[in-house]
Design a protein that fits this description.
The protein is α+β, with helices and mostly antiparallel strands. Helices cover 33% and strands 25% of the residues. The protein contains 14 helices and 15 strands. The strands form three sheets. The chain has a six-stranded antiparallel beta barrel with strand order 9-10-11-13-14-15. It has a five-stranded mixed beta sheet with strand order 1-8-7-3-4. The chain is rod-shaped and about 160 Å long. It starts with 7 loop residues before the first strand and ends in a 6-residue tail after the last helix.
């Protein structure tokens, strides 16, 4: 498993953009999913960050759409965009991609490499196709001509007498009753020359009829006995879909593989590249389309059926994956506010009316204040805050009540966002000292209040006045 151990500090409420680097430019991303660790496991995970220990506990978040695309000018790097996430969670991005030893990598190489003389000079994509074929004994990507090509070769050698290869010097001596040693030697050389000339002609026709043999390293592997045996089978009309590869030469089918790319994929790669599973589906559809173009009499090129098998196989063992893990932990934010509270009480000695106040809100859960409240989907926890503050102005009354401390009294309760991200309804209790009218003793008393406030976003104010200041 290839692992990219970058830890992302996610800003909750703001989309995350992350660059991920695959091992090389010929890896193809199949899918990117966002995974979340269940909240009940978060504490243990926070203490050890051992992903393998919790490997079976991560689950895919199906309703979160992950978008990715190649970075301009860099085929290895992809830009991944993730929507806003929940707070206090552990996430990871799981990337599933096809390795550079896949059929798709061969197509991408094919598209990148110069195509001049591709049918005579070995290219990197051809070497990759050979490796893929060698690894899959069940699905060899061998070249086998279609029926029409074999028939064409059959007609080309129709006038050749292949029985010459079966004649021996002993047969000639017996037929012509030759006794003279010189004459026997002469007949021997004549028979050898006739066989060599016939073999040369057969090889010339083979090279003309079957383009795969234009590759020097492939044609060099032709054995004389195989050429003769193959030609006899074709002349008799006893051939099937693997006669070529079984009896003449087993060679990887560069010809049809390239022609498939040139016919179906070249324009697609140029004009509208496909991501993820869409590329596999597109190639599968084109394989079916090409298969349908052959008649019942045709021998469908071997690579088509085996390509389908390899494509399906590639989806399981070949993809590699790696996770990028990150967390959406946050610190409690303190937001100062200013407002007015009204006291709710019918007690005779309780404060009446209300007071201006200065306070502070302690968030229970973060939210993105850059998004208007009207279009934000905030939970109750994101709207609620713990609220505390002090009254501006004394509530003291001789022999009745005294301030909580000095000239101020304490407000303690909660607040709830309304109308905008910076306006709140406040509620809670006013703490002050009640004076006993008989003995003058003081006791702490709480009376309810409600109010309205507006956030004092000092940081934003300062940045508005001093744009270059870093806070």
């Amino acid at each position: 498993m290839f692992s990219q151990n970058t830890v992302i500090e996610a800003n909750f409420g703001i989309p995350i953009t992350k660059e991920i680097d695959l091992p090389d430019r010929y890896n193809h991303i199949m899918d990117i999913v966002l995974q979340e660790l269940p909240r009940k496991l978060s504490r243990d995970y926070f203490n050890d960050h051992n992903e393998e220990k919790y490997e079976n506990d991560w689950f895919d978040i199906n309703d979160v759409k992950i978008h990715w695309d190649k970075k301009e000018g860099d085929n290895k790097t992809h830009i991944v965009s993730i929507p806003p996430l929940k707070p206090n969670r552990f996430y990871r991005i799981k990337v599933t991609y096809l390795s550079s030893e896949s059929i798709f990598a061969a197509y991408l190489m094919m598209h990148d490499e110069k195509n001049d003389n591709w049918y005579t000079e070995k290219k990197q994509w051809m070497k990759l196709i050979e490796r893929i074929s060698a690894k899959r004994d069940r699905f060899p990507l061998t070249y086998d001509p279609v029926h029409a090509e074999l028939v064409s070769y059959q007609k080309a050698i129709d006038g050749l007498d292949l029985t010459v290869f079966d004649r021996t010097l002993h047969d000639i001596i017996a037929e012509e009753d030759i006794k003279d040693e010189k004459e026997i030697e002469k007949k021997k050389k004549a028979l050898e020359n006739e066989k060599n000339e016939l073999f040369t002609e057969l090889k010339r026709i083979l090279l003309r009829e079957f383009k795969i043999l234009n590759f020097a390293d492939i044609s060099a592997r032709l054995e004389k006995e195989d050429v003769i045996h193959f030609s006899k089978l074709i002349k008799k009309g006893t051939f099937d879909e693997t006669t070529f590869s079984s009896n003449l030469i087993d060679a990887v089918d560069f010809i049809n593989i390239y022609e498939f790319y040139e016919t179906y994929l070249l324009d697609r790669f140029k004009n509208k590249p496909l991501n993820g599973k869409a590329l596999i589906d597109f190639i599968n559809d084109k394989i079916k389309e090409q298969e349908a173009s052959y008649t019942d009499e045709d021998l469908i090129p071997n690579h088509l059926g085996n390509f389908k098998a390899i494509l399906l196989e590639d989806k399981k063992p070949l993809p590699s994956t790696y996770p990028i893990s990150f967390e959406t932990a946050y610190k409690l934010s303190l937001v100062p506010d200013f407002g007015y509270v009204t006291y709710i009480t019918d007690q005779e000695n309780a404060p009446k009316g209300g007071n201006l106040f200065l306070g502070v809100n302690i968030s229970l859960s973060p939210s993105n204040k850059n998004v208007p409240l009207q279009i934000s989907k905030l939970s109750a926890m994101q709207r609620l805050s713990i609220h505390t503050g002090v009254t501006i102005g004394s509530i003291q009354k001789d022999h009745v009540r005294d301030n909580f401390f000095g000239n101020y009294s304490l407000l303690l309760g909660g607040s709830y966002k309304v109308l905008t991200q910076g306006t709140r309804v406040n509620f809670g209790g006013l703490f002050y000292k009640k004076i006993d009218a008989i003995n003058g003793s003081k006791s702490i008393t709480v009376h309810p209040y409600v109010g309205l406030s507006i956030d004092l976003d000092i940081k934003r104010w300062l940045q508005t006045i001093f744009p270059k200041i870093k806070i």
